[in-house]
Amino acid sequence: MQRRSFALLALILAPMFATSAVAIANGPATPAPTPAANAEAIARGGYLVRFGMCNDCHTPFKMGPKGPGPDMTRALSGHPSDFAVPPPPAMSGPWVMAGLATNTAWAGPWGISFTANLTPDKDTGLGNWTEEMFIMAMRTGRHEGRGRPILPPMPYQFVGSLKDEDLKAVFAYLRSIPAIHNKVPSPIDPPEETKR
Predict the structure, then answer these.
(1) Whether pTM exceeds 0.70
(2) CA trace torsion 91, 103, 134, 119 (10° rounding)
(3) CA atoms of 175 and 119, how far apart (whole Å)
(4) Residue 116 to residue 112: CA distance in whole angstroms
(5) CA pair distance 159, 168, nearest whole angstrom
(6) Where are the domains of the chain?
């Protein structure tokens, strides 16, 4: 009877000892951010997104009573997937860049670039990105921190100069906004004759 009680006690305590051993081996657990800390980061990120004028390019423009302005029903969703882009105008002289009426597509010596969907949509936005990927993208000027170059007019050099905690706050804010499913086209390379 005593042996069975000891065996039962061992079965109950074994998982607790195993968990403690793993915690000791891995070091102290990183506490999850408190709701207040997360709310503070999101608020800071929203402030930085507004100050950095991210909506000016990443939110499609629409015509309003006072002229064109960001369509906040599609906030930060990037170039609209249903907006077909015609060939850009020929540029000469001092004109080296052209922008589409939506303010989400740009043409220049690099070809045609489209502003990204920054919403947390998992298929078409930043939903599958990690905080580290976002920071690396802003620091390196590479998609996901390691992919194709991020093209003009995205001022990644300016955004990438923010402190880590500010970039983390921007990412926290972008994760908090409504997800909008909008597949932005891939960049279009310039014609071969302009590459020479």
Answers:
(1) yes
(2) -150
(3) 7
(4) 13
(5) 12
(6) 34-84+96-185
Distance CA 147, CA 131 (A): 16
- Looking at residue 25, what is its pLDDT? 44
Q: How many CB atoms lie within 10 A of CB 61?
A: 20
42 in Cβ contact with 173 (< 8 Å): yes
Interatomic CA distance for residues 153 and 164, integer angstroms = 22
Tell me how far apart the alpha carbons of residues 73 and 79 are, in angstroms, rounded to a whole number: 13
Burial (0-12, 13-18, 19+ Cβ within 10 Å), 153: middle
Per-residue pLDDT of the chain (196 residues; tens, 9 = 90+): 554 544 443 444 444 444 444 444 444 454 555 677 799 999 999 999 999 999 999 999 999 999 999 999 999 999 999 999 999 988 888 888 999 999 999 999 999 999 999 999 999 999 999 999 999 999 999 999 999 999 999 999 999 999 999 999 999 999 999 999 999 999 999 887 555 5
The amino acid present at 78, given as its one-letter code, is G
Q: Which residue has the tokens 């991210």?
A: 54
Which of 69, 123, 109 lies closest to 189, judged by CA? 109
Distance CA 40, CA 62 (A): 31
Nearest to 150 by CA among 46, 89, 78: 78
Number of neighbours of residue 16 by Cβ within 10 angstroms: 9
